[in-house]
Amino acid sequence: MVVLRKVGKYEVGRTIGEGTFAKVKFAQNTETGESVAMKVLDRSTIIKHKMVDQIKREISIMKLVRHPYVVRLHEVLASRTKIYIILEFITGGELFDKIVHHGRLSEAETRRYFQQLIDGVDYCHSKGVYHRDLKPENLLLDSLGNLKISDFGLSALPEQGVSVLRTTCGTPNYVAPEVLSHKGYDGAVADVWSCGVILYVLMAGYLPFDELDISTLYSKIEKADFSCPSWFPVGAKSLIHRMLDPNPGTRINIMQIRDDEWFKKDYVPVSLLEYEEVNLDDLNAVFEDSEEQLPNEQCGDEDMGPMILNAFDLIILSQGLNLATLFDRREDSVKHQTRFVTQKLPKDVLSSMEVVAQSMGFKTHIRNYKMRVEGLSADKASHFSIILEIFEVAPTFYMVDFQKAAGDTDEFLKIYKNFYNNIEDIISKPPNERSKSRITKSKSKRR
Q1: Helix, strand, or coil here: 252?
Q2: How far apart are the C-alpha atoms of 365 and 294, rounded to whole Å?
Q3: What residues act catalytically?
């Protein structure tokens, strides 16, 4: 059973995101019923790196940023050990997930998202805020399908060097070459490079720089060694090359992007919100030591665990009411079912699956209780992407679900079967199946 945690007037639920320095949890305002996202930072980490003034400055700027394409920061709270940043809760998911599940976007859709991205980034730059970690995972979609930039300036600790620019999976695919060189860099110019990589990904469905070997990846980024697919429109191709200029001194800037003909097509200027008074009293209170300033914090489990499946979820996932299919009881079940049940701890399951995936030469990216596996097909002719997610069916009883995100279905089933055969020790089977397995093994030993 998951124990809820309460921070002030907010009832905190499960983890919905995780970055380099913080976790993001779903929460609900018990006074208004409004859903929010709660970003949790460790106070000792901020103090250790002497970043109190930096964090205060960046949070205050974020409170002042009121733009339709940027996630809104509502308020800031703190306990003795944590700082809680209360953010607008966005329901449409990540742009990253849309690309993973649907592949490359149309030119019109790509342009619309890119225009919204540039609008939001430009506005934040005007306020002195530089993202330094722009990527599709940090671009959310609201219920109307509009872009919402998240995590502006809140995950960066400059003293940490390049590590502040790592994505959640630890890869620098979106980072500008001047950042990788460990030298000082202009945040606005570096953000333009990242926007260029994002534009490429939206239109291509894959990264312009993507190598398993990190030194090769760095080398390609530093030289801007990439090529655009044949289906790229001439205008978009030209703009991408100007944005992915390895020389920050000659790289195109946002004003020039706005003047670009491809960018301007069907452009609808965003209506900025009317001025509203912003109160920074909560920010000052966060860094006070007085105990009466601290919100009431009732802690449950820090790790909220995997998403819990209810009866309706189980019915949908198990093809009607035949719940037995969850156990993969038949030897040929991998041809039809791509999920199994386990009683091992979720983190141990993820660890085992990561080892298997990497032993097969695939790349893995883990966030919360979801793992993305990427690699080349057996004939090296195409890419594939698989999403593995762990759900809680009952206490100490979990289901692991495999979904094909991109690639050939036959290839996906072969990969799943390979996984299944290599992690049998963590798969739960009905007692009669386990006894049959032991009998078979004992017979083979006698032979």
Answers
A1: coil
A2: 36
A3: 133
